[in-house]
Amino acid sequence: MNLIKIKRCGKVKGRTCADGNVQRNYVPREEASSPTLSNEALMCLLLINSFENREVAVFDVPGAYLHADIPESKFEILKIEDEDDFVDIMCNVNPEYLNDVRYEGKKKVLYVRILKALYGTIGSALLWHSLYTEVLEKEGFKLNPYDRCVANKVINGKQCTLAWYVDDNILSHNDSKVVDQILKTIESELPGLVIERGRKLNYLGMELDFFEKGKMKLGTVQYLTNMISELEGELT
User: Less Cβ around it within 10 Å: N or C end of the chain?
Assistant: First the structure.
């Protein structure tokens, strides 16, 4: 499955992911359900950041799921079908797969075992969440008991907070050097972070403006504009 999205900056982003719907027939919900950042927790964090005049950074982890290994106890097979020449592309990159190509009717298919969490497969989000929390806990962060996508650590007598929605993160502390160090530490574990700093930031489709201590602006104009453009494209 190929997904194409126009980002806020105007760049076109493509993502190829598996169709994991067939897994719903045999993967228990408790083995696949992953927590996500709640609206209440996010709004509270934004208010705290503004009230305490914290230094804020937002960042995402490209290809986040691929950092997580599938446990050896699980044997997951990915069926690659000859749509958009996927089978040929895979064999061009990995010639050793040529001998494993089969035909179902007139259609080429390739079955491969996947070793990393893959976008679209059931349970990948939970594998990523488990890996990410391990990284944070190793650095001394403690998960919030009311929201498992919020972690805190007291550094230099002040609270440092990191919250995340899948691979989109928001990090804050009163000292910009602490924020620098945390970003550097996470980068050492998960290379390739895309980081945004400053008083005006974009997070989860919202425009954040920490323009004055104790005050902030939150807007969704850009997000709504993109949504309207997408709907107009579908209607035409």
Answer: C
